[in-house]
Design brief:
Blueprint: E1 7-13, E2 16-22, E3 28-33, H1 44-50, E4 54-59, H2 75-89, E5 94-99, H3 101-112, E6 117-123, E7 128-129, E8 145-146, H4 149-155, H5 160-163, E9 168-169, E10 175-176, H6 181-189, E11 193-194, H7 196-199, E12 206-211, H8 219-228, E13 232-237, H9 243-246, H10 248-260
Parallel strand pairs: 3-4, 3-5, 5-6, 6-12, 12-13
Antiparallel strand pairs: 1-2, 2-4, 7-11, 8-10, 9-10
């Protein structure tokens, strides 16, 4: 498989940095949004799988990766960032793909600005998130910064290996996580509630990928999502919520087949 290079770019949003990766080229554009605890680089393999036929643009959403932190993590704020990016790139309607948080944010983008979207791939992004303590509250025990890279990874406990590639060095020589623990909990708590109106707010061609053992999107809810939104195809894979990490081949195959049919 030929190597696809993702180049980092920055969009200035009134003094706040929004960083994104772009595979470039003349392929059809696809905007890929990561979930919590992740960043745009998590779609590097997807860009390689889709090759030159597709130009993958993968932002670090606000507060993640190389993008600056903000004071709030509402749906409106996340979607404002996406609209600004798509209008700056001026690519016309793009295919959008989002995992978890990314899938929820794209529900609201497609409902608010369907003129910017050609089709939608939702990867285990739920329409209902029960109220209660954040399931990501465990990250509050992580050190955001530490003198060495190894200390940051060790401080992240069991998920240290998962986020190791994203650990960054600060200008002063210290190291940091690719997300701020408190920001992450604030952002996750902001998705609690129901998102049905956003989910059915457009009728664009849609692929819904659901993990059969998902902690976030039960199978019966995924089936209801597919039934209530026109032009939606449901694919279920034998994974938990982290679909593309646990079954990359199945994930890439489902995405390729959907894109080929557009």
């Amino acid at each position: 498989m030929p190597t696809t290079t993702l180049t980092r770019h920055t969009l200035d949003l009134a003094g706040r940095r929004l960083s994104y990766l772009d595979s470039g080229g003349t392929g059809r554009p696809l905007l890929a949004l990561h979930g919590h605890l992740a960043e745009g680089a998590s779609f590097t393999r997807l860009a390689e799988e889709l090759g030159p036929e597709w130009r993958v643009i993968a932002p670090d959403q606000r507060g993640h990766g190389d993008s600056d932190r903000t004071a709030e993590y509402s749906r409106e704020g996340y979607v404002d960032d996406l609209i600004a990016l798509l209008e700056d790139l001026a690519l016309g309607p793009v295919v959008v793909l989002g995992h978890s948080l990314g899938g929820i944010n794209l529900m609201y983008l497609t409902a608010r600005r369907p003129d910017l979207v050609a089709a939608f791939v939702n990867v285990d992004g739920p329409v209902v998130m029960p109220d209660g303590p954040s399931p990501l509250a465990f990250v509050l025990n992580f050190p955001y910064t530490a003198p060495t890279r190894e200390e940051v990874i060790e401080g992240a406990g069991p998920i240290g290996p998962m986020i190791a590639r994203g650990v960054r060095q600060n200008p002063d020589g210290s190291w940091r996580l690719p997300f701020h623990p408190q920001d992450t909990v604030d952002s996750e708590e902001a998705v609690h509630g129901e998102h049905w109106d956003a989910w059915v707010g457009s009728d664009l061609p849609t692929l819904l990928i659901n993990g059969r053992k998902s902690q976030a999107l039960p199978g019966e809810t995924a089936e209801e999502m597919a039934a209530r939104r026109p032009r939606t195809t449901l694919v279920r894979l034998d994974t938990d919520h982290f679909v593309q990490a646990q079954d990359p081949e199945g994930f890439h195959r489902a995405v390729r087949e959907f894109l080929a049919g557009l």
